[in-house]
């Protein structure tokens, strides 16, 4: 068999790198559960009529087809989900009679997109979504709650115990604010103005201004007012006065200003030196079903990645014709965040295996005795393994060292000793009593400085919420 060719866009992590991902996913799940969110998992496939109902993702859906096409039967007309919002909407409708509303759920799962892999874009990737869904109505305070939950989650991830990130900026805007402003301004095509303003991160301001006039039908003065609004960004509610100074009035604008100010004030106590929330009035989100709060998130030093975490309020997540289920949600692109950091060597783990102890072998006949030691340690939740062969002790120690295992256990003449191979210290030990220091019990994430922050490989050699956004997070 010839050497396989790596499949671009499908990242895979080496064991030490996978440790980083696992600890991130565990931290997210713990945080979401601390806030009372229930975890769910939906099937990987959905009917095509559901996946394609918005139309804009038709080229990205992976179709599912059986090899024996004539026997496809019910497998026809289904595809892999490209985000977690579409399956969640279906899940709410199917289970509405069994759910308590407002329903608070988190979902951490793989999704698939059939597009050309490039920086920040993968064909298979992991997302972490949280949503709060109501029946017919959903009070605004849930927008604040979702923001606080994700700020908490990001703060924990950014800390030195996990990713040690330089800073995360959660940018927030409100569609009512910008729609009310454009309406009060007299814009003839509000949706087109929002679509073009959303391009400010990708196009020069002068080009966006030209497009506002040429494609959205604005006057030069109206285009300048729209760009002036988009330039406003504050860490507090001082943006309200700046918007008022632009002289545009509309009741929807008033409502949006009030909601956004309430959200910024409601999250002020959670801002830290690593995570901050700010009102950024250029954030529009390109999808048309957002009706209020909208989120995007940038990682300091890695701005080229675009938004790693995004979402918003949608007042019609799902409907059965009689009942409407409004929601607010935000999604973190786990792969988008981790792949470039791991690919640049910024993050790895201090060992590639969970084992904290290697039980050495004197000879093959002593294997049962070594296994008994390992069993005793495992019985007390201490991960360990027995050496694969009774090589010289020096070789067994080097084997442990290569794998990052910090301790080697020796049994000689019924005497037990454990050696910390990092310091060389060796002491008598009892497998029924000995425990490693807490910091050694599990692999720990280690950090290195990034050269050329923001640069990524396509998938990383083994590793791998618009820039690959889901419907909610536009695949952060």
Overview of the molecule:
This protein is α+β, with helices and mostly antiparallel strands and 476 residues long. The chain contains 14 helices and 18 strands. It has helices spanning 15-34, 48-51, 85-95, 141-158, 175-185, 190-197, 205-214, 220-230, 239-244, 251-267, 334-343, 367-378, 393-403, 438-441; strands spanning 38-39, 45-47, 78-80, 103-112, 124-133, 168-174, 233-234, 275-280, 293-299, 309-319, 324-333, 347-349, 357-359, 384-386, 407-412, 415-420, 426-428, 445-447. The strands form four sheets. A nine-stranded mixed β-sheet has the order 1-4-5-11-10-9-6-8-7. A hairpin with a 5-residue loop joins strand 16 and strand 17 (426-428). Helix 5 crosses helix 6. The longest helix is centred in the N-terminal third of the chain and has 20 residues, at 15-34. The chain is elongated, with a radius of gyration of 26 Å. The model is unreliable at 450-471 (pLDDT under 50).
What does this entry show, briefly?
It contains 14 helices and 18 strands. The protein is of the alpha+beta class.
Radius of gyration: 26 Å
Outline: elongated
Mean pLDDT: 89
Sequence of strands across the biggest β-sheet: 1-4-5-11-10-9-6-8-7
Number of strands: 18
Q: Which spans of ≥5 residues are poorly predicted at pLDDT below 50?
A: 450-471
- Describe the main β-sheet briefly: 9 strands, mixed
Helix count, DSSP H or I runs of 4 or more residues:
14
First-last Cα distance: 38 Å
The SS-based structural class is alpha+beta
What portion of the residues fall into strands of 2 or more residues?
Answer: 15-25%
Amount of helix: 25-40%
């Amino acid at each position: 068999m010839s050497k396989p060719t790596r499949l671009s866009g499908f990242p895979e992590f080496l064991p030490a790198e996978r440790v980083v991902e696992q600890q991130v996913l565990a931290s997210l799940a713990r945080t979401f559960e601390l806030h009372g969110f229930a975890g769910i998992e939906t099937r990987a496939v959905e009917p095509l009529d559901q996946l394609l109902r918005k139309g804009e993702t038709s080229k990205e859906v992976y179709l599912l087809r059986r090899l024996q096409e004539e026997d496809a039967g019910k497998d026809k007309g289904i595809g892999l989900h490209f985000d977690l919002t579409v399956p969640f909407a279906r899940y709410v409708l199917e289970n509405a009679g069994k759910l308590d509303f407002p329903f608070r759920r988190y979902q951490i799962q793989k999704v698939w997109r059939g597009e050309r892999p490039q920086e920040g874009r993968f064909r298979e990737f992991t997302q972490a979504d949280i949503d709060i869904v109501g029946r017919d109505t959903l009070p605004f305070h849930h927008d604040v709650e979702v923001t606080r939950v994700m700020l908490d989650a990001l703060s924990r991830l950014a800390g030195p115990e996990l990713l040690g990130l330089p800073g995360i900026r959660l940018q927030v805007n409100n569609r009512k604010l910008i729609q009310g402003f454009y309406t009060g301004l007299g814009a003839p095509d509000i949706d087109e103005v929002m679509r073009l303003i959303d391009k400010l991160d990708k196009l020069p301001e002068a080009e966006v201004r030209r497009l506002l006039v040429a494609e959205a039908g604005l006057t030069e003065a109206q285009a300048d007012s729209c760009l002036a609004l988009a330039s406003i960004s504050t860490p507090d509610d001082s943006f309200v006065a700046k918007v008022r100074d632009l002289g545009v009035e509309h009741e929807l604008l008033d409502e949006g200003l009030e909601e956004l100010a309430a959200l910024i004030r409601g999250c002020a106590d959670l801002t830290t030196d690593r995570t901050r929330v700010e009102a950024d009035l250029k954030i529009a989100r390109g999808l048309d079903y957002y009706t209020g709060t909208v989120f995007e998130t940038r990682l300091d030093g890695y701005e080229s990645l675009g938004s790693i975490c995004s979402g918003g309020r949608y007042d019609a997540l799902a409907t059965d014709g009689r009942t409407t289920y409004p929601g607010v949600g935000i999604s973190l692109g786990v792969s988008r965040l981790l792949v470039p950091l791991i690919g640049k060597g910024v993050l790895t783990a201090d060992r590639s295996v969970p084992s904290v102890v290697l039980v050495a072998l004197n000879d093959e006949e002593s294997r049962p005795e070594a296994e008994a030691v390992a069993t005793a340690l495992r019985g007390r939740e201490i991960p360990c393994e027995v050496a694969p062969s009774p090589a010289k002790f020096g070789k067994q120690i080097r084997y442990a060292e290569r794998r990052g295992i910090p301790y080697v256990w020796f049994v000689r003449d019924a005497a037990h000793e454990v050696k910390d191979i990092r310091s060389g210290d060796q002491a008598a030990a009892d497998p029924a009593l000995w425990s490693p220091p807490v910091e050694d019990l599990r692999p720990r994430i280690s950090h290195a400085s990034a050269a050329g922050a923001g640069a990524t490989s396509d998938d990383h050699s083994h590793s791998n919420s618009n820039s690959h956004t889901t419907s909610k997070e536009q695949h952060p």
